[in-house]
Amino acid sequence: MLPTPPVSLLAIARQVEVRLAEVIDTERAKWVAFEPQLATPFDEMRRLVLAGGKRLRPAFCQWGYVGLGGNRQDPIVVDAGAALELLHAFALFHDDIMDGSATRRGEPTTHMVAMGEHESRGYLGEARRFGEGVAILVGDLTYVYADELMMKAPLQAWAIWNTLRIELNIGQYLDVLGSATRERRREYTERICQYKSAKYTIERPLHLGATMAMPTVAPDVLAKLSAYGVPLGEAFQMRDDVLGAFGETEITGKPVGDDLREGKPTPLLSLATSRASAAQLAVLDRVGHPDITETEIRNAQEVIRECGALDALEDHITTLTAGAVNAIKQAPITTDARDELIELAAYVSWRAV
User: Fold this and answer.
1) Range from 216-230, 252-266, 314-328 carrying the lowest mean pLDDT
2) Do 273 and 184 contact (CB within 8 A), yes or no?
3) What SS3 class is residue 72?
4) What is 128-159 written as a DSSP string?
5) What is the phi/psi pair of residue 103, to 5°?
6) Rounded to an integer, what distance in angstroms lies between the CA atom of residue 350 and that of residue 124?
7) CA 49, CA 259: separation in Å to the nearest integer?
8) DSSP per-residue letters across 279-326
9) Three-state DSSP class for residue 103
10) What percentage of the chain has pLDDT greater than the value 70?
């Protein structure tokens, strides 16, 4: 049976969403008064940021804060959670361009919306370049507002915030490069897994919350939080990889087998490549080709199952999650934070979306 989102996660999501709506709507009103056409970037920002999402990063940030003695209702940690969501939105705006994604969460992506506007209104220039340019700028604007929400954070937290943002961009670059070069080495795909998502989703938000609650937090305390955050972050991304290869469109909002269509360099694909027979490798070799067919995607899925890669990855997710739970039990944090982080571990590792 798949886990349901923890009650606390839903409460944190509501809290953060109220703050996000307040920021976006206030800025929209200000800039629309200056120029009515500036409604578009804020409407697109609102559409993506408030259309849903798991709000995991704000939750891990908040429990890092509470775990070191902070009050979960403190506006500073709510702002940090909202900042993390805006930073995530920035990455998604750009990610959809890099991946050529037409939809996200079942809705057209921003660059596709802008392309459609260009075509329907007969604008000058190339529609694709216009659409991608709009989405890049909306993403950049979102990035700036994320920084603004972090303005009241202590200097030590800003150091974590900067590290988090650098690691995210490094991971994204490795992902783009790995797709282009058809990278299948296990160590490379795991490095992408760690930097593109694992650290940025769990470890660094935990550190961010901890340093906001206790700016002089000892390095060994952060290390103990990492002992939970790093393996669980890897499990989180590996679950994403499974959903990206096998997830149902009605649930994920993405086409079935989207990661296989794009040739994403994932640990799942790396495992399959290392286990496949010569005939199976020929099937997997079609992954990532621009003209790959739906039948070839289904064949690749079948190979991933048949060679045991899917089962092996599921076992690894289980091992990583168990290690994370054991680590957080040893961390010097409050009991309520520890209990919530244990519950979150089950949710992020075995969720359906």
Assistant:
1) 252-266
2) yes
3) coil
4) HHHHHHHHHHHHHHHHHHHHHHTTTS-HHHHH
5) -135, 155
6) 48
7) 23
8) HHHHHHTTTT-TT--HHHHHHHHHHHHHTTHHHHHHHHHHHHHHHHHH
9) strand
10) 98
With bands split at pLDDT 50, 70 and 90, how would you rate the model's confidence at 252? low
Which amino acid does the sequence have at 88? H
Tell me the two tokens of residue 101.
Answer: 């994604």
| DSSP category for residue 254 | S
- For residue 317 the two structure tokens come to 């997710």
β-bridge partners, 108: 103
Binned at pLDDT 50, 70 and 90, residue 196 comes out as confident
Cα 256 to the center of its chain, rounded Å: 19
- Which residue, chain included where needed, has tokens 């990661």? 259
- Token couple for 207: 């550190």
Centroid of chain to Cα 225? 19
CATH code that applies to domain 7-350: 1.10.600.10
The 3-state DSSP class for residue 348 equals helix
Q: Residue 41: what residue type?
A: P
